[in-house]
Design brief:
The complex is a heterodimer. Chain A is an alpha+beta fold. Chain A is 31% helix and 21% strand. In chain B, helix 1 (2-29) runs antiparallel to helix 12 and helix 4 (87-122) packs antiparallel against helix 5. The longest helix of chain B is centred in the N-terminal third of the chain and has 36 residues, at 87-122. Classes of the chains: A alpha+beta, B mainly alpha. At the A-B interface, helix 1, helix 5, helix 8, helix 9 and helix 15 of A face helix 2, helix 4, helix 6, helix 7 and helix 11 of B.
Chain lengths: 537, 317
């Protein structure tokens, strides 16, 4: 057919149905928010969306999350590790027993050698497989791990820099890839970097899906791994499509080009529902705060001010603004979570109490509280930052608080986050607005409350320092029984709420929209989902 | 002519260096940090510094720029900070996709522009002129990303006639000129064609109107030549200027379709630049802008040469 005839056909075509609609039996097509396919070499980028779609489906870590239920925080469960325990004689040594009989997609065996090899790929600069690209994506999420040693074929010893009970949780971030497959590619590649690029185009893990097609920036296609140790998935095929623009994702779903989209814009939800799409949401381990500055002339140094602001916010009003796509935050985690504790300061909306606390702190109509917050106009995990911040600005005005914004782009905001509020990059801001993942105690609590984590070491942007908190953190890190560790963390969390160490605003609920053909999907209280249970009817 | 050609090619070298330098400096001056393309925001300082060293981002800026320039001189645009893939591998596929879109949109826009401009210029003041002029003004005034969204809502969401995004059922890697792929091209092509359509319509209208008023047209009419023959004379006289405008428009479409490619998730240079800007992926930004700038320079040179061929009165010193 000639181009001319085709264009004429396009101009005068009668209504046509999209062929993709008919061909999707057993195939799930997902529209991601990412602008590119997250890295597929075993340590995905693009935040936790990467782990969700090119991490857990293709690879397994040693420990993982139970994603089977929507009604509870996801517990840590064995994955490629069957069990783990700290060495009673040496609290920096962990003995990990591995799952027997597991094979990588290329047919090679998963064993202790593979674990050691995978640890070295990010922690040993002298290892042939060392990949600087993966260091930033992995080492940051398991800060205490230093090395691994083989004990026997199905046992490894993992060593940490200091006693750290968080290690089993951290290990969910280290995905196991096939050393045999990588070596085969390395033999044909001029450099290790080239071998990793070849591996990314043709990866081999132990996960429930195998990648069979990869078009950079456009699509990745998986087929089910029939031999998966945890049982074969129901889907025959999964296709991932990066669609960064929210309206384009919605249009792709409504026109039948995809079956599932991440993060539909709140405005589009009524139309999606009206066209028969299913909207799912659940509380995500994530919160959207203002993180205060505790040094210099920041007015947020005063706990009464921090408490007043926490009490002045009408979170239900904000939820309405977001079309229901948030949950009011009354802490880093919520009641029912193992780390909740029992804070005596109850975060709620009480503007009268807020005014009273502000008056006690010396602020009132004659001397209004004024401060600046550094925010971004968009960004990964930032929800709807402009609307939400403007809402807060209006809301706080009602109790006499005048907030000024320093709007910077997302990249700049988190560059500044590493530099701390005392640095010139903060430009006099008394708070910053970076959303925070709470899957792991280090990332949820420790990096903000530990004086050793003050910027630029980690994300204690506010330079908070209190020996009581340092002691509670040490206690948590040295509590190796999970129940004792959670008890110590709940004490730490409750103390943080009592001191109002954040202005807690919202928890994200990770909305997604999908065709009614998608069955068996469970949205857990997690950043991740289990694609094994999903099918297409 | 050969001397002229060589001189223009030599002129392109400082342009390339300047483009690379300006792009490099703009990214450095802009707030933010290219390291964010590699490490997550919550990375501790020691890891950040280690990765910065591994990637050579700890070196002084002149050395970083010099190393990049040295590699470019050897045909290597470097590797993406975000993906580790060679810049050229992503860029070459993106250029192919953008070229497909830009050329098709240009052909559509130029054809419509010449048609409407010709009619408007020939029948000045008529109803047809007013319609053509209105369409031209609308074409240059309507934001094309907005038009793209409207077309998607109508033709993809409501009517379900055409796909809303992507470059084919299997992506652009297996692109072919069959209906399954062309239907993905139609909406972005139409969206992108409205601006060149408007500009070419206005240009051609002005040129035709001006030429039609010249005495040689009256003389041709007096000689009793047919309307068709007179039309060919008008076309020949209008062509050099119209071509110059069209050449520039094609260049703009090659580099300026970021928004349209984002709206339609069309995997071209615009979408590549968009994600590289947000990630501060310096090698991708520099490589893409350099190649697009060279494309623009080459296009201008081709237009100049074609103009000379069409109108020998235009001398090249």
């Amino acid at each position: 057919m000639t181009l001319k005839r085709l264009l004429l056909a396009a101009a005068f075509a009668a209504p046509l149905t999209l062929p993709g609609v008919a061909s999707s039996q057993g195939t799930l097509r997902i529209g991601m928010t990412a602008a590119d396919i997250p890295l597929t070499h075993g340590q995905p980028d693009q935040g936790f969306e990467g782990n969700r779609f090119t991490g857990f489906p293709l690879f397994d870590p040693l420990t993982a999350w139970d994603l089977s239920r929507p009604d509870r925080p996801t517990p840590l469960v064995p994955s490629l590790a069957l069990s783990w325990e700290v060495d009673a004689a040496n609290k920096t040594r962990w003995i990990v027993k591995l799952r027997p009989g597991v094979k990588f997609h290329d047919g090679s065996d998963f064993n202790a050698d593979a674990v050691v090899w995978n640890v070295r790929k990010v922690l040993d600069r002298d290892a042939p497989q060392y990949d600087p690209r993966q260091v930033g994506l992995t080492a940051t999420r398991m800060p205490a791990l230093r090395r691994a040693e083989k004990v026997d074929d199905l046992t490894v010893a993992l060593f940490t820099a200091e006693p750290d009970s968080f290690l089993p949780i951290n290990l969910t971030n280290l995905f196991m890839v096939s050393p045999t497959h990588w070596q085969k590619l390395r033999d044909a590649a001029p450099t290790a970097e080239a071998a990793w690029n070849a591996f990314a185009a043709n990866p081999s893990g132990t996960g429930p899906f195998k990648m069979v097609r990869f078009v950079p920036r456009e699509r990745a296609e998986y087929v089910k791994n029939e031999a998966y140790w945890g049982g074969a998935p129901k889907l025959d095929r999964v296709i991932l499509l990066p669609i960064p623009e929210a309206n384009a994702r919605t249009a792709a779903l409504l026109s039948g080009q995809v079956d599932w989209i991440e993060a539909p814009s709140p405005d589009s939800v009524p139309q999606l529902k009206q066209r028969g799409m299913v909207i799912t949401q659940n509380v995500q381990p994530h919160f959207w705060p203002w993180q205060p500055c505790f040094v210099g002339d920041s007015p947020l140094k005063d706990v009464r001010v921090r408490r007043a602001i926490n009490l002045a916010i009408d979170r239900d009003g904000m939820k309405q603004l977001l079309g229901g796509f948030m949950e009011p935050a009354t802490g880093t985690v919520e009641q029912g979570h193992p780390w909740w504790g029992n804070p005596t300061f109850k975060i709620r909306t009480d503007k009268a109490e807020a005014r009273k606390l502000l008056a006690e702190a010396g602020y009132g109509p004659g001397k209004p509280l004024k401060f600046k917050v550094q925010i971004s106009a968009s960004g990964s995990g930032q929800m709807q930052p402009l609307q939400m911040n403007e809402y807060l600005q209006q809301d706080l005005k009602q109790v006499g608080v005048e907030v000024e914004f320093d709007v910077v782009d997302w990249n700049t905001l988190f560059t500044n986050w590493r530099q701390g509020c005392a640095s010139p990059a903060a430009r006099g801001a008394a708070a910053t607005n970076v959303s925070i993942s709470t899957m792991d105690p280090f990332f949820a609590l420790v990096r903000f409350y530990d004086s050793k984590m003050a910027a630029p070491v980690s994300n204690n942007w506010g330079m908070f320092s209190d020996p009581r908190f340092d002691a509670m953190i040490a206690e948590a890190r040295n509590s190796f029984e999970p129940a004792a560790r959670d008890a110590a963390l709940s004490k730490l969390h409750a103390a943080g709420v009592d001191e109002a160490l954040f202005i807690w605003v919202a928890h994200d609920v990770s909305p997604r929209a999908m065709s009614a053909k998608v069955k068996g999907f469970v949205q857990p209280q997690s950043w991740f989902v289990d694609l094994k249970t999903v099918s297409i009817q | 002519m050969l001397l002229y050609l060589l001189r223009r090619i030599v002129y392109a070298i400082p342009i390339a260096v300047a483009v690379g330098f300006v792009c490099f400096m703009l990214v450095q001056i802009a707030p933010g940090d290219p390291i964010n393309a590699i490490v997550p925001p919550d990375a501790p300082a020691d890891v950040v510094e280690q990765v910065r060293k591994d990637y050579g981002l700890d070196k002084p800026l002149p050395i970083q720029f010099g190393l990049w320039l040295w590699k470019v001189c050897h045909g290597d645009l470097g590797r993406s900070l975000a993906t580790g893939r060679p810049v050229w591998s992503d860029l070459s596929s993106a250029i192919g996709n953008t070229l497909t879109l830009a050329v098709c949109a240009s052909l559509l826009g130029f054809a419509l522009g010449c048609l409407l401009g010709g009619i408007a210029g020939t029948f000045r003041g008529s109803f047809a002129d007013r319609i053509a002029t209105t369409l031209a003004v609308a074409g240059v005034s309507v934001p094309h990303y907005w038009l793209g969204m409207v077309l998607v809502v109508i033709f993809s969401v409501q009517l379900n006639w055409l796909p809303a995004m992507g470059a084919g059922p299997g992506g652009s890697a297996d692109w072919s000129w069959d209906w399954e792929h062309i239907r993905h091209l139609i909406l972005p092509m139409v969206t992108l064609s409205v601006i060149p359509m408007g500009i070419v319509t206005r240009t051609v209208r002005g040129l035709v109107a001006e030429i039609m008023n010249q005495e040689f047209i009256t003389a041709l009419r007096a000689k009793g030549l047919s309307t068709w023959t007179i039309f060919l004379h008008v076309v020949k006289n209008a062509a050099p200027n119209a071509l110059a405008v069209m050449g520039l428009q094609l260049g703009y479409l090659m580099g300026g379709s970021i928004l349209v490619e984002t709206v339609f998730s069309w995997p071209g240079t615009g979408l590549l630049l968009n994600s590289a800007i947000f990630q501060r992926d310096l090698p991708v930004l520099q490589g893409t802008i350099l190649v697009l700038a060279m494309f623009f320079v080459t296009l201008n040179l081709i237009v100049d040469l074609v103009q000379t061929t069409l109108d020998p009165r235009i001398k090249r010193a």
